[in-house]
User: Which sequence fits this backbone?
């Protein structure tokens, strides 16, 4: 749809509409992401917002191009940061019927965690407290221990953090 609109407006440059105007139309007038109750970057998308459970001072989606699908529920702990271009997907299509989604365990991200740019977190993953997900990581399995840096494709532990060295409030 967007490609067609861009082509139409390229034909007559005097009527060209910027991306931001089109984005405003789709988000405000057509009510995409209307249920989100906190500031959301205009390029971010959150699906099934009612299944997204957020801790204190956690605002995923305030960075650009964040995609969150909370169909099977997502729990994000207090003071967790989500970088730009992150995808957190709690649902997976059924292998035999693409119109159905498999029911899986929810995604759980512990408090004081940090999800780096372009990271992907897939269904049924659990990340412990104070977990840092490196930029570009593909997290396919759980790391419930916490206090570690994970990264790579698939994600693995890159470094363990000392709990006493992290200042807790």
Assistant:
């Amino acid at each position: 749809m967007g490609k067609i609109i861009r082509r139409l407006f390229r034909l007559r440059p005097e009527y060209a509409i910027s991306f931001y105007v089109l984005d405003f139309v789709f988000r405000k007038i057509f009510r995409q992401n209307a249920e989100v109750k906190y500031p959301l970057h205009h390029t971010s998308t959150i699906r099934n917002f009612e299944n997204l459970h957020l801790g204190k001072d956690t605002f995923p989606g305030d960075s650009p191009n964040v995609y969150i699908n909370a169909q099977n529920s997502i729990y994000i702990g207090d003071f967790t940061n989500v970088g730009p271009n992150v995808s957190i997907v709690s649902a997976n299509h059924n292998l035999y019927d693409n119109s159905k989604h498999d029911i899986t365990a929810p995604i759980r991200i512990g408090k004081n965690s940090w999800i780096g740019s372009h990271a992907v977190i897939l269904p049924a993953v659990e990340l412990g407290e104070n977990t840092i997900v490196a930029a570009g990581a593909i997290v396919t399995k759980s790391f419930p221990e916490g206090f570690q840096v994970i990264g790579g494709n698939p994600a693995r532990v890159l470094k363990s953090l000392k709990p006493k060295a992290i200042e807790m409030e």
In short: Confidence is low (pLDDT under 50) at residues 11-15. The two ends are 48 Å apart (CA to CA). The longest helix spans residues 19-29. Residues 116 and 135 are 4 Å apart (CA to CA).
